[in-house]
Amino acid sequence: MNGMAARYLYLTRHGEASPDESELTDAGRQQAALLGERLRGVPLAAVHHGPLARAEQTARLVGERLDGVRVQPSAAAGDYVPYLPAREELPPETADAMLGFLDGIPAREREDGPRLAAEAFAEFTGPVPGDEPRHELLVTHNFLVGWLVRAALDAPKWRWMGINHANAALTVIRYAPGRPPAVLLFNDTGHLPAELRWTGFPPELHV
Question: pTM surpassing 0.85?
Answer without folding.
Answer: yes
